[in-house]
Amino acid sequence: MTNVHGQVSEARSRLLATATRIFYTEGIHSVGIDRIVAEAKVTRATLYRHFPGKDDLIVCYLQEADRAMRGQVDTIVAQGLPASDTLRAIARSIAEGIRSPGFRGCAFLNAAAEYPDPAHPVHKAVLVHRQWFSHTITEVLARMGNAPAEPATRHFVMLRDGAMATGCLSDPEPICDTFLQGVEGLLQLHAAAT
């Protein structure tokens, strides 16, 4: 929601920033609306003016995370590197995220675990993100040659999912190293198949 000058409402921004921080660090179901309202320093009426319900706030949180990731990947793709180097750069950006302070796994995998019903709006937001990510990786891999890109995409996404799921459970360094080595192996297999 914007004000008369076309700017995003400060209250909405605070609500979304607060919800993002708490949802990511503590989980979605464990956080109530009252806590978000209190920490964002707004009223319940203000919350509901911007987000009709908690599910709408959660979907917006995921859409913001999606936009951020798309921005990162689009920046990498726009560099015009060879396809294999583009995929390596995407993998390195994922590894950097895993190594970052406060990393708690993939926001989308976490949300899917809390909202397993495929018909739920939160689950649908997760699927939109994952479809975009898979499509983008497929496009990059397709530039490498004649081998079908879809199997390699599934392999890459599974490597990524595994790294994201385990990256917050122990020392992220060996996990990131294993992930990046796995991407190298995938690239060699895909190149050999073309």
What does this molecule look like?
Residues 32-51 bind DNA. Keywords: DNA-binding. InterPro entries: Homeodomain-like_sf, HTH-type_TetR-like_transc_reg, HTH_TetR, Tet_transcr_reg_TetR-rel_C_sf. Residues 9-69 form the HTH tetR-type domain. This is AcrR family transcriptional regulator. This protein is mostly helical and 194 residues long. The chain has 2 domains: 1-52, Homeodomain-like (Arc Repressor Mutant, subunit A), CATH 1.10.10.60; 54-193, Tetracycline Repressor, domain 2. Helix content is 74%, strand content 0%. It is built from 9 helices and no strands. Helix 1 packs across helix 4 and helix 4 packs across helix 5 (83-99). The termini are far apart.
Features of this protein?
Arc Repressor Mutant, subunit A, 194 residues, 2 domains, mainly alpha, elongated, Tetracycline Repressor, domain 2, disordered N terminus
Task: Tell me the fraction of residues in β-strands, as a range.
Answer: under 5%
Helix segment count?
9
Question: Major beta sheet, specifics?
Answer: none
Q: What is the fold named in CATH at topology level of the largest domain?
A: Tetracycline Repressor, domain 2
The best one-word shape is: elongated
Overall number of domains: 2
CATH architecture title of the largest domain: Orthogonal Bundle
Q: What is the CATH C-level name of the largest domain?
A: Mainly Alpha
Determine the structural class based on helices, strands and strand pairing.
mainly alpha
Total beta strands: 0
Look at the structure and give the mean pLDDT.
93
Assembly state (oligomeric): single chain
**Low confidence ranges:** 1-5
Report the radius of gyration as a whole number of Å: 19 Å
Spell the H/E element sequence. HHHHHHHHH
Separation of termini? 49 Å
CATH superfamily name of the largest domain? Tetracycline Repressor, domain 2
Percent of residues in helical segments?
A: over 70%
InterPro entries: Homeodomain-like_sf, HTH-type_TetR-like_transc_reg, HTH_TetR, Tet_transcr_reg_TetR-rel_C_sf
Organism: Kibdelosporangium banguiense
Protein name: AcrR family transcriptional regulator
Domain HTH tetR-type: 9-69
